[in-house]
Amino acid sequence: MSAGDRRVRGADLGGRVALVTGGARGLGAAYARALHAAGARVVVADLLDDEGRDLATELGDRARFVRLDVTDEASWAAAVEATLESFGAIDVLVNNAGIANAAPIEHLTLAKWDAVIAVNLTGVFLGCRAVVPAMKAQGSGSIINISSVEGMRGSPGLHGYTASKFGVRGLSQSLAVELGQFGIRVNSVHPGLILTDMTTRIDPAKLDIPLGRPAVPDEVAGTIVFLASDASSFTSGAEFVVDGGMIAG
Ligand code: NAD
Question: I want to staple 229 with a disulfide (CB 3.0 to 4.6 A). Which of 11, 58, 88, 212 is the partner?
Answer without folding.
Answer: 11
